[in-house]
Design brief:
With 94 residues, this protein is an alpha+beta fold. 38% of the residues lie in helices and 32% in strands. The protein has 3 helices and 4 strands. A 4-stranded antiparallel sheet has the order 2-3-1-4, with helices on one face. The chain is elongated, with a radius of gyration of 16 Å. InterPro entries: DUF3303. It holds the Pfam family DUF3303. This is DUF3303 domain-containing protein.
């Protein structure tokens, strides 16, 4: 299943410096069992999102825990258009 993890950094220069150092040290790579499909960060460095894929919610939580001390995170399951169309095909009133 695919998940969108959004992140928001508080405007704290010490936390930002720690987040940058941690990212450079680790590459921001999720644990084994979670695939990073893409990451985008806003030009002002205030927020961004990761597109992740996993069937293991515990591993997803592990990844969030690695960053939750430095930024606010939100994780939500997402569907691609083809998956959404299949749902509509099964349940939409005709």
């Amino acid at each position: 299943m695919k998940f969108m993890m959004t992140f928001h950094w508080v405007p704290d220069t010490e936390q930002r410096a720690e987040a940058i150092e941690r990212f450079l040290r680790t590459g921001g790579v999720p644990p084994q069992g979670v695939q990073l499909l893409g990451r985008w960060t806003s030009a002002d460095l205030g927020s961004g999102f990761d597109l992740l894929e996993t069937d293991d919610a515990a591993k997803l939580t592990e990844f969030a825990y690695q960053w939750s001390d430095l930024m606010e995170l939100e994780i939500m399951p997402v569907l691609e258009d083809a998956e959404l169309a299949a749902v509509f095909g099964r349940v939409a009133k005709k």
